[in-house]
Write a structure and sequence with these properties.
The complex is a heterotetramer, with two copies of chain A and two copies of chain B. Chain A is α/β, with parallel strands linked by helices. Chain A contains nine helices and 16 strands. Chain A has one domain: TIM Barrel. In chain A, the strands form four sheets. Chain A has an eight-stranded parallel β-sheet, covered by helices on one side. In chain A, strand 8 (122-126), helix 3 and strand 9 (162-166) form a beta-alpha-beta unit. In chain A, helix 2 (104-115) packs parallel to helix 3 (143-156). The two termini of chain A are 25 Å apart. Chain B is α/β, with parallel strands linked by helices. Chain B has two domains: 20-120, Beta Barrel (Elongation Factor Tu (Ef-tu), domain 3), CATH 2.40.30; 132-239, Rossmann fold (3-Layer(aba) Sandwich). Chain B is built from seven helices and 13 strands. In chain B, the strands form two sheets. A seven-stranded antiparallel β-sheet of chain B has the order 4-3-7-1-2-6-5. Chain B has a six-stranded mixed β-sheet with strand order 10-9-8-11-12-13, sandwiched between helices. In chain B, helix 4 runs parallel beside helix 5 (219-232). The chains are: A alpha/beta, B alpha/beta. At the A-C interface, strand 11, strand 13, helix 5 and helix 6 of A face strand 11, strand 13, helix 5 and helix 6 of C.
């Protein structure tokens, strides 16, 4: 079948994207597969200024998953646009910039700058920064804050589609999704990591210097599927599903509960050719299942 | 000397690699004869991917990421290992059991499938005419086997191996015979003090003759080498063993702070080898990474 | 060292309890170990009337975890007290009743009935039922609702300690914890399961007839540890920690982040002697680590 | 007849078991010769725990939960298997590869540690003087091997085995020779129709002579047997293979609805064997449990 998916003004040759923070700036994976064989590339979260991130250690393995507290180390949006973007095959594969800021103005400034970059296909807004002004609650944990950021980005994004990335660490993810939708989001991506921690009883220290980090990987797939399922029934926006995907089967599980596209995250660490392998295996699996089009399959979970 | 290293550390180019390959286990041999599995020593031979020696080939000090297919999701990550030797159809690594990943690797069977990517990272400098001191802390011996074979004048090399398990477990017979060597077991406080004295006098000596010092081993060992190298103004390179999730510069989980660099640098792509004077071996990291 | 722990008016010979719903009514495990070697037994959730639970299938395996949507099938509190409790060695090991109801009055009625039962050492309140009157939000997801239930149970519990069991499916678990504490809870137990789902792309059906279920097992340990850590710093009440515990090491991880006792849940399914084994292994591990007393270890994570 | 079953199904007593034991693999043999691993057939011999035959011993139709120690957390649950035979120091099960757990079991090595608990559940009725029809759907043969050996008059037994893999993979040689048997392969629609006719005439016959019918196999097979047994008013007992997390009545994950019972009953402790007229084999469960 034709794997092509169109939504939010984007056209992807297949629904396999990569997840921000797990695929570097894309170039790191060029030796392991053909970047243009992917549906799209979401790069590491970008801030206005370069960021050093959190102290080490900042990754730890957990059962069927991992914790990270990288703290958004990145080279800053300017160096990304100047040094990395020109090397990416952006005319053949959509490159999506993941934005990170700690107030609405900063988000808007990032959006404005990126709106002018031809090589950027869309903006993905990471709203998991704590808003200090709002008492430290994360933007992504409060519908009003989420709406604020979405509107600010949307106002400056010009023609670029705005994807809002949601956190699962909330009482009701559909409330945040609705707020982002009402504020103008073109698509939603979910889920970001679950808040978690790990400790070492011998050193009596946390395994992450930052103490708390984000849980990702196969362990969280049930949570990701549930969130996508709930949001896809509550909000009329295309959804990009992620969380624990590590096979073509997992991709179809997400699409079956309502996702239009998916992102491969932690699984890229299991083997750097993972996203390429999954993209290559997808047609065969669809044929085996007798699926003829995305429309016939997407969201078609029979209850 | 360290131009090569510094170029890599500039975080621009993607180091060449043969990509991600499924290969098979040729042989797994335990080299020590202790009773315990913990801390045991092993040589693992994998079928060498044909692509591995093409192009730029590999250089001693580089490493590979290894993940047996049978691991499914547990452990999750691949594990990094120095390339001990690669040639004659064999990719050899020398490893010690320290946790669940290395413990699981002792169950590998010939013919079993293993995913490997590499060669990764930068390499130790080779200065053909310089007396070169190889400082190995235990399993840190691994890269020096390949290094010794690739060196144009092996008689300029001197290897000092500090070790805890019996020396018989270390495959010193794999080294070219012409290499001078000394081994020192660290069983008690006294041994350690003695080894540290030895280390210091060697480092001081190589500083004097403007020799090259290369070190590979656990963090505390590297710290000791670093301190002495700074003290005697020796030219030393340290191979770091930070925890790695991806090995290719994508996760930013392996970083270390380097003098003169604004952002923490990736040990997997910009290292693992750094000049002793550049790298900050933070105590906090050591406590946590090597319990 | 002396493994004894005292809190909330209870004295446990060791901190190893079993988690509700994973240890039946206790008796099922008698062939696999000495029930009196445990710190305590928390039995399957009890409602006033017997409940048939959800349709099948209601369990599914997931990476390093499982989903369940048992739907609180149980024989009802009366048959528990009449048929099961007399067979349990309650004079030698505290038996804790886990209560389940869908409004505050029902909770109060359960508490009142159980307050009179000599064999019941404490009441654990499961507030993960959706409150239909409050628009279907779970009691455990709203601080006011949580307080309401806690106060209602506490008012009727007489001398029995009241343990409130918290859900991790909230934006801020400390807010719920504080509400329960202010309403009179004697201790808190956390975490209950994470909301999740699983699907089968071949049958195109959810793997649970109920569609959504609760995720438990090793996969969720990082989330449980994080919740216990956060709550133990926010609220001055003893905490019973759980979520993914499957070894003596895991027990000490929970105690190091602030728990007074722990519960073994899903791990009981890995082998039915699991809780007994962990209780037996604990002294050796403590000795190996040089721990001399709980006071010296509990909450003593060095940051 | 079914007093025994009904007593167990009353959900009062805890059925006797030998507890949870760590034992070792003695032998693992593949019995079929197909190429594919999927659907392959295996005999697994474990060292029989001494306690296993003490007390009430075990009875055919009972099962064990098996979990290799090497599984750590993946797969998470143990897997239930009928006891094929237990005696002479060996606990034998006969299994088919259908998913990741059974696939992983094909890697078991002699000497490897396995956690086992059982015997669990109730047993097939034994009526010493009644002609008894054993209906096995594929791997459902497993409990009938022990049943045949334990029966006082094996010549009163007749075994009908419907199978998809070649019959040579089924260890019929393990049955007492005196047992009458018939096998029917189901390769195509026609085969199945033919097998169903055969099944029906046998069930009708045993209904007529008031014989006993015991069935073990996949859900669709059990449904067919159930329908016919009801139609001909035959006395039939069905062994259910619901998904089980604990096997001991603790998780309530394996339940089924039984006529006359207010609450769903636990297949692991109150079954797995039920009278055909009592049990509700819901279509929804079948679709999901056997994909
Ligand atoms: C570039 C590089 C080259 C290496 N070369 C070799 C080699 O040639 N031979 C060899 O035996 N080992 C080598 N190591 C170390 C090896 O990667 C670790 O011993 C291994 O990953 C531990 O895995 P585990 O699952 O057994 O331990 P875990 O169970 O994960 O951890 C056990 C202990 O090891 C520490 N640890 C875990 N992962 C790492 C890691 N990636 N680096 C350092 N410490 C870790 C943990 O903090 C813990 O104290 C190298 C590491 C690096 C980064
Ligand atoms: C009392 C009892 C006795 C059994 N005796 C035998 C026996 O003697 N020999 C034998 O080969 N098998 C027997 N089974 C079935 C066996 O337990 C399953 O085939 C096995 O658990 C599948 O595990 P898996 O990981 O390979 O499959 P999974 O990967 O878990 O699943 C693969 C497929 O098998 C189905 N399945 C998974 N678990 C079960 C389960 N517990 N019961 C039924 N279907 C399941 C799934 O729905 C799926 O369609 C018995 C089951 C029960 C309940
Ligand atoms: C090491 C690491 C770094 C990440 N960095 C980012 C980031 O910069 N921005 C972002 O939106 N998400 C980031 N994430 C979250 C992932 O994009 C993804 O939402 C999450 O890991 C769940 O998907 P997975 O289970 O497939 O990994 C990061 C995840 C990991 C593991
Ligand atoms: C099959 C099953 C049934 C459960 N039933 C209950 C219950 O009746 N009441 C309750 O409070 N928690 C119930 N739980 C939640 C557990 O008590 C526990 O909070 C959760 O599983 C997390 O711990 P674990 O990861 O150790 O299993 C149940 C869990 C499982 C797996
Ligand atoms: S290991 Fe991932 S960036 Fe170095
Ligand atoms: S398998 Fe757990 S109750 Fe039957």
């Amino acid at each position: 079948m034709n794997l092509n998916v169109k939504f939010a003004g984007m056209e992807l040759k297949n629904p396999i994207l990569t997840a921000s923070g797990t695929f570097g700036y894309g170039l790191e994976f060029a030796p392991y597969g053909d970047l243009t064989a992917l549906g799209g590339i979401v790069v590491k979260g970008l801030s206005w200024e370069p960021r050093t991130g959190n102290p080490m250690p900042r990754v730890a393995e957990t059962p069927c998953g991992m914790l990270n507290a990288i703290g958004l180390q990145n080279i800053g949006v300017h160096r990304f646009v100047e040094d990395k973007l020109p090397l990416l095959p952006w005319s053949e594969v959509p490159v999506i910039a993941n934005l990170y800021a700690c107030d609405a103005e900063d988000f808007a400034r990032l959006a404005e700058y990126l709106a002018d970059q031809e090589g950027v296909a869309a903006l993905e807004v990471n709203i998991s920064c704590p808003n200090v002004q709002a008492g430290g609650v994360l933007f992504g944990q409060d519908p009003r804050q989420a709406a604020l950021v979405t509107a600010a980005v949307k106002a400056k994004a010009g023609a670029k589609p705005v994807i809002v990335k949601l956190s699962p660490n909330v009482t009701d993810i559909t409330a945040i999704a609705k707020a982002a939708a009402d504020a103008g989001a073109d698509a939603l991506a979910l889920i970001n990591t679950l808040s978690g921690m790990a400790v070492d009883i011998r050193t009596r220290k946390p395994r992450l210097a930052n103490v708390i980090g984000g849980l990702s990987g196969p362990a969280i797939k049930p949570v990701g599927l549930r969130c996508v399922y709930q949001v896809s029934r509550a909000v009329d926006l295309p959804i990009i599903g992620l969380g624990g995907i590590s096979s073509a089967e997992d991709v179809l599980e997400y699409i079956m509960v309502g996702a239009w596209a998916v992102q491969i995250g932690t699984a890229n660490f299991l083997r750097p050719d993972m996203a390429f392998r999954i993209a290559a295996q997808l047609p065969g699996l669809l044929e085996e299942l007798g699926v003829k089009s995305w429309e016939e399959f997407r969201g078609k979970l029979s209850i | 000397m360290s131009d090569f290293i510094l170029a890599e550390q500039a975080d621009t180019a993607i180091p060449p690699t043969s990509g991600c390959i499924e290969t098979t286990v040729v042989d797994l041999t335990r080299t020590d004869s202790a009773h315990d599995l913990e801390n045991s020593l092993w040589l693992l031979d994998l079928q060498l991917p044909a692509s591995f020696c093409e192009g730029k080939g590999w250089q001693p000090g580089q490493f590979v990421m290894i993940r047996p297919v049978s691991w499914s999701f547990e452990p999750l990550w691949a594990r990094p290992f120095s390339i001990c030797m690669a040639g004659n159809g064999i990719l050899r690594i020398f490893f010690q059991v320290v946790g669940r990943g290395t413990r699981a690797m002792t169950k590998l069977e010939p013919g079993e499938q293993v995913v490997v990517w590499g060669p990764l990272g930068n390499a130790f400098s080779v200065e053909p005419d310089t007396p070169t001191l190889l400082l190995a802390g235990g399993i840190g011996l691994a890269p020096f086997i390949g290094y010794a074979w690739s060196h144009p004048q092996p008689d300029l090399l001197f290897l000092l191996l500090g070790h805890r398990p019996s020396v018989s477990g270390y495959p010193l017979h794999l080294l070219p015979e012409s290499i001078a060597r000394e081994t020192a077991r660290q069983k008690c406080e006294e041994d350690i003090a003695c080894f540290v004295r030895d280390l210091e006098s060697r480092i001081a000596e190589y500083a004097r003759i403007n020799g090259l010092i290369l070190a590979c081993g656990p963090h505390p060992f590297l710290r000791a080498v670093q301190t002495m190298a700074m003290q005697y103004r020796a030219r030393a390179q340290l191979s770091l063993e930070n925890r790695m999730a991806c090995g290719i510069g994508a996760c930013l989980g392996c970083v270390t702070n380097i003098a003169g660099q604004e952002l923490p640098v990736k040990v997997c792509t910009q290292g693992p080898i750094f000049r002793a004077e550049d790298v900050k071996l933070e105590q906090a990291v050591i406590d946590r990474v090597k319990a």
